[in-house]
Amino acid sequence: MTSKVEYKKRCSEELLLGDTKRLLRHLGIKARKSLGQHFLIDEEVLKVVVSAAELIADDVVMEIGPGLGVLTKELARRAGWVITVELDSSLAASLRQTLSSLENITVVEGDILKLEPVALLQEQKITGYKIVANLPYYITSAVLRHFLEAKLPPRIMVVMVQKEVAEAIVAKPGRMNLLSVSVQLYGEPKIVSYVSAGCFYPPPEVSSAILKVVLYSQPMVAVDEREGFFGLVRAGFCASRKQLVNSLAQGLGLSKDRTLSLLERAAIIPKRRAETLTLVEWVQLWQVYKRVKD
After folding, report:
1. What whole-number distance in Å separates Cα of residue 136 and Cα of residue 18?
2. Low pLDDT (below 50) residues in the chain
3. CATH code reported for the domain at 4-215
4. Is residue 215 classed as helix, strand or coil in its secondary structure?
5. If you average pLDDT over every residue of the chain, what do you get?
6. CA-to-CA distance for 79 and 60, rounded, in angstroms?
7. Domain ranges of the chain
8. pLDDT for position 201
9. CB within 8 A of 71, min separation 6: which ones?
10. CATH assignment of 223-293, among 1.10.8.100, 1.10.3720.10, 1.10.1040.10, 3.30.420.10
11. pLDDT tens track for 16-64
């Protein structure tokens, strides 16, 4: 027997799905697979996303890929100002019409990977903001890197991503990878909730997860050392099944003896594999390597 809560949830989903289909027909738009367009039709998931962002009235929020603006409206009700960036010109034009009654929303048409956050925020001279987005999955890693490495990074990121990507990002030593290191260097990630494919229209072929990253006030490696640090990490993961001494020697183009010396000075056992290192150990190894390199 279906409970009242389940029945209410199903009705809500059907209503939002119906509204989504009607609006797409009215606009003469079809979801574009090439842009990873999957529109959220589950109000409970919507509430979880917004709640995870811990919004207050003074918050500035940047949203990427707003689609039909379902999440945008919820953000605007709770935050002081919402900047929403949409690549699809048809959807951007629609958003300007459907969201015109909400004065605290700015719709920007463009590619977020070509837009600097500080430029989008410059008029208001904002010193802090949050990212909340249902990200197109094909640009997830690029978008995360774009904001984590920005001149003005966000304070918090709450993003819908592919389940496997979220699990890779929050991985602990023993299952670490280049992606987990590249995110955890800047902040603490956690999975807020998992989301089934049926919560979207059209449904994607994969399950999703709501990922939250709370950024540190300062990354663990100085900005001007970032490129060198990640060069070292990439070398370590270039042959992840190999012992660290062998993958580093191969990736850095060093002799095995010199690599052994490097690991010894960093107090890291050469037989370990890259996925077992903690972030602190990667930073420690970088500090030794840059002194040797210089």
Report:
1. 22
2. 1-14
3. 3.40.50.150
4. strand
5. 88
6. 6
7. 4-215, 223-293
8. 81
9. 40, 46, 49, 50, 63, 132, 133, 134
10. 1.10.8.100
11. 666 666 666 665 666 566 555 677 888 899 999 999 999 999 999 999 9
